[in-house]
Amino acid sequence: MMYPKPQRKKKRKKHKASILHCKDGTCYLCMKLKGDYRRYPVVHEHHIYDGPNRQNSEAEGLKVYLCLDHHIMGPEAVHNNHKNMRILHRDGQRAYERTHSRAEFMSLIGRNYLDEEKQEEPKKDTKDGFMFLEPDCIGCFGASENQCERCEEKRHDKKTETLAD
């Protein structure tokens, strides 16, 4: 051959080690949720942010090692349990933000999981998804614990009137 074809090397993907957990046979969620540090013969590598962010998770080390029960089988598996998946999302963001800024995390993943902690707290006055109103509530959704200042003032005025009589 007079003109040999130039050899191009494939661009290699970065396979960074996990920044949350080392691969020693332990399950990240067993340790976190149950305090169980036993070593499993098989642990699966789970990328915390999947879908379009899977490659970002791989490149940045946002992955953990899980036993079969916490990865794909059983009710506590991250692929079956939204609560456990959120735990991993928050832990992944905290670990990434130890060395990077929140703006860098947002540009990489596109979502902030730490602000959701405050939003997911259930309200104290709800029971089975319903909030019962006082009969004299003026419609501003003040519950029995008098969270609404206007309802609080109106009730307070009525109580002082009845005490004065």
Which key features would you list for this structure?
7% strand; 4 strands; globular; two-stranded antiparallel sheet; 165 residues; 2 domains; mainly alpha
What does this protein structure show overall?
By secondary structure, this protein is mainly alpha-helical. The chain has 2 domains: 28-119, no CATH class; 126-164, no CATH class. Helix content is 37%, strand content 7%. The chain has 7 helices and 4 strands; from the N terminus they run αβαβααααββα. It has a two-stranded antiparallel ribbon. A two-stranded antiparallel ribbon has the order 3-4. This is HNH endonuclease.
Compact summary:
It comes from Dorea acetigenes. The chain is 37% helix and 7% strand.
Strand content: 5-15%
Number of helices: 7
What is the mean pLDDT?
Answer: 78
- Name the shape in a single word: globular
Number of strands: 4
Low-pLDDT sequence parts: 122-127, 129-134, 138-146
Overall tally of domains: 2
Measured on Cα atoms, how large is the radius of gyration? 26 Å
Query: How is the main sheet built?
Result: 2 strands, antiparallel
SSE succession: HEHEHHHHEEH
Detail the topology: elements first, then pairings.
Blueprint lengths: L27 H7 L9 E4 L6 H7 L2 E4 L1 H4 L10 H15 L5 H8 L6 H4 L6 E2 L2 E2 L17 H16 L1
Antiparallel strand pairs: 1-2, 3-4
Protein name: HNH endonuclease
Organism: Dorea acetigenes
